[in-house]
């Protein structure tokens, strides 16, 4: 047994290992921590050896999982020790104990820098390793340039340069805006000629990071990558020590192919030919061998080659070779290969024309769904989900259903969601769809989210042929002795609506239906009771002529719930009871539900969201975006039930109750506006005034409309978002009758001001003030909403919904329902910019003060310029870049007229405030402006944008604008954005104040006037 | 640390004949078992799993060469050595050097530096001891 060379440390480790239990261990560790702490306190007496020993002990304790909250200073101070042994320990322990945000690192920066630029290469290595492992913005800012010098220095030995390459990689990955890599293409190309394979391997990793961000700049590296690959895979021209189980550095091969995947194509025919030759050799020349490691290494290369072939969209023949290989892999014994076979087959689905070949392996894939390994089962599920279409949906979904009963709990939710989506997307007929969903609820009710059953109800409601079928099915399930509560909900709902269609069949009389539903009543929770009550009311209505006995039974139930503590239940019971005594008018109120407006399935959207969540900047994803993957296209299809494929109402509509959407679109069409300002809906025929009067009477809702708004339903309904919410007799206050509450200050001006600064007031009225504070970093942002209650009474029913445009991912933390008097709550909102776009996110905010419900829709200042970072470019950088972006769609030019006349310096100021750095002197013409900036989004990463404005001194109202960037959408959006700013410069503070001067409605971004913001439809139309 | 605890639960419960990859919070964990020791690497979803797996094995082979048939106790009592070696193999999670020979040479050079410093120190203290006699 080798000893650590430090007796004290070894003794301590043995002690810890000899502890009988966790408690003893903790005691021993605490004792040691105490010891170390006292030793550090009288630091003067510590020899370097002792200091080293204690720092190691601390690291060991930290490794055991204990908190070590002191001694960091000692570790960091060892870095500046003059001698290697102490320095080494200092560096390693610091790298392990501290993360990039730790304050102490700042103390070390100088020492680290001195070590990096110093002459001692062992010190250089230590310093580079630390920086490479910790990263950190401050390190990047102060060290990146030095690290770059080391990497290309001809006097440095490989051992330093390979570390420099990876160190730079780390700094660049974490802070691409700080590390200046302009003009690095040539240097990278040079580095790829490197003979030392350590340096080459590290440089290749660096190249992968660089090209993933901006492949345009690195075209010159492409042929070199192909050469490297040829050298390794074909010529095997490599020192013996760099072969791994006989394979020429598999890692380097993989990295090289990874880098190649970031270039959209290989244009040069010679290079392309050589590349395909090598790939062909890899594909065909890889055999399964006995040695595990050799096997793994060669397959690592093979799978990377497969990915590259897919990316290059090779000839069909090569593709089918690939699929054939994968088909072989998914059936082999070696689990790793099976796993990867399935995973890569899923990726392969994105390639056109191979789906049919993949389908041939369906049986094998279904077998993998029963693999003993959950990792493999997951991949099989992904693949089945991806490969499903109309032709095989029945088989696949039935397999999934069968598997559901035996699947692990960890997978059930995903499984049932996927089955539901597939059933909806590819249902050959709708009765099958209903069957599947009901089976799903039956088998895995706990894992079936509400969305799934809401969706089936929508389908049944919208398809008359389906209604009696669904009712019969629902009735069958109710026969079962124990069924899931979700099944009770959906069955009760369907039987209430459509049970009467089957009234003539035996077992379907109103009384029987009621009995069988009511049998489940004792087992359900409060969330189901309202649905049962509606169902009873409907049964009662359909019982013609009335059966007094049934009536009495149901009335008794209503009576019982009239005093229920749950307001939703109480109100329903009271309303239904009153309504059902009205006789004929009951028919109107409780008539069948109208059809739901067609819209995109919430489930599919959920799945899409999930895809976006995991979207990362990777070669495959990039490609998917470039080519519009078939997988995504498919999700846009409507179920083949004859409904027209409509564009979805957008992600915003989800939160709305369906009928509400109808109403807000066709006011007066279905609803009737009562003088009180309350809208009744649901009724094909408007009920007579009489009923309304009575209704109000029964509910004892009298007085001003505000009293109606007080009804708890609005809140509950919003929350449920369920079809049930649109149930009969629902009084939903529509339209935000905010009445007396008027905003203080101009909402628009506040918004524009916040577009330029990062903190300020977004909204204010007599009751509440909403402040915003934002921090932006690259493509991410963190906004904090400060909701301040100005009153001495609480604000209730506070709701904040974010309606994000598609290019932003936004997550709002929980907003409390009430804000106590004079209190301020903070709600962080995380923002991530996925793509360039000028669309604006909206905060739908409401609260109740006393009887008044206030609702406002506020634009959030997460606008395009927040994702810009100023950057200054030199002429040497600007001109090549400007020239290389030669024309549309990357470079766009437009003559803009109607510009608000501005003196040139003021225009330059304006640009700078929008974080477009004006670079003086670049354009010889003094009437022109040249500006540059970096735009950040997840898809584009950091991207340089260049802008040139040519003004006409004779006519300041027009100018010619040229915008260029490496991304066509970005170029377009940025151009439009700048145009908007120039045309209707909404710089609130400089403009004459007053409501009489709303920004001219030239630009799309300009908001509808405040009055229109009351109407969500109009607002959205303005935004989308 | 919390991650390790969670992952231990996931990985230790997996049987011997399963694949070496586990999905974990939008990432993948590649692990390999050597007797009673597990080595894990967390990678992105799109990364090459087998490549990572062989990085683990490569690391173990280098440890093996350094310690001469490495065992758990070697690593426990010499955890700092394991860190030195890891730092020569990986930086920023990327492979830095794939030659075992080169790494071995670098590590022994480091060990020498430490030795030399130690000798210097002890000879120095000898001289002082002599002088103060």
From TrEMBL, chain A:
Biological classification of the source: Eukaryota, Viridiplantae, Streptophyta, Embryophyta, Tracheophyta
Stated name of the protein: AP-2 complex subunit alpha
Listed GO biological process terms: clathrin-dependent endocytosis; intracellular protein transport
Membrane topology: Peripheral membrane protein
Span list, region Disordered: 987-1019
Major localization listed first in the record, in broad terms: membrane
Gene3D superfamilies reported in the protein's UniProt record: 2.60.40.1230, Leucine-rich Repeat Variant (1.25.10.10), TATA-Binding Protein (3.30.310.10)
GO cellular component, as recorded: AP-2 adaptor complex
TrEMBL record, chain B:
Gene Ontology CC, one term: AP-1 adaptor complex
Membrane topology reported for the UniProt record: Peripheral membrane protein
Gene Ontology molecular function: any one: clathrin adaptor activity
Main localization category: membrane
Cross-referenced Pfam families: Clat_adaptor_s
GO terms, biological process: cytosolic transport; intracellular protein transport
Keywords recorded for this protein, A-Z: Cytoplasmic vesicle, Golgi apparatus, Membrane, Protein transport, Transport
Protein's cellular compartments: Cytoplasmic vesicle, Clathrin-coated vesicle membrane; Golgi apparatus
InterPro entries recorded: AP1_sigma, AP_complex_ssu, AP_mu_sigma_su, Clathrin_sm-chain_CS, Longin-like_dom_sf
Keyword Chloroplast: no
AP complex mu/sigma subunit domain segment(s): 2-112
PROSITE patterns: CLAT_ADAPTOR_S (PS00989)
Known role: Subunit of clathrin-associated adaptor protein complex 1 that plays a role in protein sorting at the trans-Golgi network and early endosomes (TGN/EE). The AP complexes mediate the recruitment of clathrin to membranes and the recognition of sorting signals within the cytosolic tails of transmembrane cargo molecules.
Quaternary structure and interacting proteins, as annotated: Adaptor protein complex 1 (AP-1) is a heterotetramer composed of two large adaptins (gamma-type subunit and beta-type subunit), a medium adaptin (mu-type subunit) and a small adaptin (sigma-type subunit).
Family: Belongs to the adaptor complexes small subunit family.
Protein name stated in the entry: AP complex subunit sigma
Species this protein is from: Linum tenue
